[in-house]
């Protein structure tokens, strides 16, 4: 395809990657900004590399420093809600919240500080429920209408209130933090709806792999795509890298080394045939490190191998689960990043055979009823994907040092929830539109700022579950 020959109009924008980030960028460019002749390039079908492997959740509960992450997520959720209203909620947006479960009294002040910080940054008001009659009543989650659910954060330290609304939790849980502008949706359905709307505005999806980029005087001139065994040159002035876990690989085509690394995160789906977790439950998250109660025989077995010996030690917090599907479904999604290491992305990726059992054992520490599945493990589907992230776990969105080149990436484990806001921000960069106050927090050049480099040395929270 030699576009300057006149047979075809030169693309205004070429986007590398048809995951949810690339599709969102194409949607915002074409539908909301009226940019013509946008091309999406991917060697795989849309949304099939990592976007459809997530738990499909969203939250505006984030730490600082600064309000950039809360602001980006609030804007992204605003767009999700606009789209849900416009599309008759065809992608099943819910707002049941994230329920952080704490079983350590000494950690309750930390939970409160996290809630106070996120509330101050814009996540919504903090409501404390500690048995004092002067405090507001707690409103339990309801999945029937996301528009009618509370925002903000509920911190419950009144034990009878926890037991009344969450009787399935461990009796050891002494506090729960219910972040309310949080939930999940079908990313596959949302992504395909956005892609269809973009295609109606002329966006094209090409199946191929970008092999190189032509740059003259530090300016994008064209991309070269391998399609059907042949190399095609597509002239363009704007090239967007939305390559997900392949961000570093594609960055090298324009001579850039992105400051990112990757971690493999897995999840399981299994049938909760005994309906231990109610179908209207929120996302459940354990906040305490876990020492699993192995039997003596199990301890000997795990201790005998180098790869499993570490499972006997205290393991990190962050085990979480949520119901998947409607009220008639019995499926639960569960995940626990108890052994995350830095890796180079490879496909297909390796799967730890012990992972389903470990997740179930971890979940049983906050929902004891799930212990019944540990002795006779249910059949579990295991999948996952790579979290490609910067050291402070904040995305890269905006212009690159090569003129006409842009990035929307390093979306880590929050790509699904951030995609709408990130796509809008990327489109504003490409069209030279007005930028929100948080745009600089995600700019590639932030690492050149001495003040930011100093801030990185003092960074404490990444917001990673």
In words, what does this structure look like?
By secondary structure, the chain is of the alpha/beta class. The chain has 2 domains: about 5-55 and about 185-260 and about 390-455, 3-Layer(bba) Sandwich (FAD/NAD(P)-binding domain), CATH 3.50.50.60; about 100-180 and about 260-390, D-Amino Acid Oxidase, Chain A, domain 2 (2-Layer Sandwich). The protein contains 12 helices and 21 strands. The protein has helices at about 20-30, 70-85, 110-125, 160-165, 185-200, 245-250, 295-305, 305-310, 355-365, 370-375, 415-430, 450-455, and strands spanning about 15, 40, 55-60, 100, 125-130, 155, 175-180, 180-185, 205, 210-215, 220-225, 230-235, 240, 260-270, 285, 320-325, 330-335, 340-345, 380-390, 395-400, 405-410. Helix 1 runs parallel beside helix 5 (about 185-200), helix 1 (about 20-30) packs across helix 11 and helix 2 (about 70-85) crosses helix 11 (about 415-430). Mean pLDDT is about 95; it is low at about 1-5.
């Amino acid at each position: 395809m030699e576009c300057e020959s006149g047979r075809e109009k030169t693309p205004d924008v070429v986007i590398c990657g048809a995951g949810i980030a690339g599709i969102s960028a194409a949607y915002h460019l074409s539908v909301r900004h009226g940019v013509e002749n946008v091309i999406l390039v991917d060697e795989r079908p849309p949304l099939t590399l990592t976007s459809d492997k997530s738990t499909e959740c969203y939250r505006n509960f984030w730490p600082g420093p600064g309000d950039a992450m809360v602001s980006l997520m609030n804007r992204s959720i605003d767009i999700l809600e606009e789209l849900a209203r416009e599309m008759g909620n065809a992608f099943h947006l819910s707002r049941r919240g994230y329920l952080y479960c704490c079983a350590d009294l000494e950690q309750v002040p930390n939970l409160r500080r996290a809630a106070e910080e996120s509330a101050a940054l814009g996540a919504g008001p903090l409501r404390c429920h500690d048995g004092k009659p002067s405090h507001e009543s707690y409103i339990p989650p309801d999945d029937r209408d996301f528009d009618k659910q509370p925002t903000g954060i509920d911190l419950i330290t009144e034990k009878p209130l926890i037991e009344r609304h969450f009787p399935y939790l461990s009796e050891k849980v002494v506090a729960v933090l219910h972040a309310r502008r949080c939930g999940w949706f079908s990313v596959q359905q949302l992504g395909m709806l956005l892609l269809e709307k973009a295609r109606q505005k002329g966006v094209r999806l090409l199946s191929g792999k970008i092999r190189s980029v032509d740059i003259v005087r530090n300016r994008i001139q064209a991309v070269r795509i391998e399609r059907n065994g042949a190399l095609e040159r597509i002239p363009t002035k704007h090239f967007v890298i939305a390559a997900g876990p392949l961000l570093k690989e594609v960055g090298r085509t324009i001579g850039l080394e992105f400051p990112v690394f990757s971690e493999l995160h897995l999840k399981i789906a299994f049938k909760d045939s005994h309906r231990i977790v109610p179908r209207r439950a929120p996302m459940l998250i354990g906040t305490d490190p876990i020492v699993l109660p192995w039997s003596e025989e199990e301890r000997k077995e795990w201790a005998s191998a180098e790869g499993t010996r570490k499972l006997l030690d205290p393991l990190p917090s962050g085990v979480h689960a949520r119901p998947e599907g409607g009220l008639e479904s019995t499926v639960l999604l569960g995940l626990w990043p108890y052994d995350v290491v830095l890796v180079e992305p490879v496909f297909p990726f390796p799967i730890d055979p012990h992972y389903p059992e470990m997740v179930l054992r971890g979940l049983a520490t906050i929902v004891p009823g799930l212990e019944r599945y540990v002795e006779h493990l249910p059949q579990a589907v295991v999948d996952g994907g790579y979290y490609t992230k910067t050291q402070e776990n904040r995305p890269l969105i905006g212009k690159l040092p090569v003129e006409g080149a842009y990035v929307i990436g390093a979306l880590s484990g929050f790509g699904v929830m951030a995609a709408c806001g990130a796509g809008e921000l990327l489109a504003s960069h490409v069209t030279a539109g007005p930028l929100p106050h948080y745009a600089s927090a995600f700019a590639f050049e932030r690492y050149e700022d001495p003040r930011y480099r100093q801030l990185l040395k003092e960074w404490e929270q990444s917001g990673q579950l």
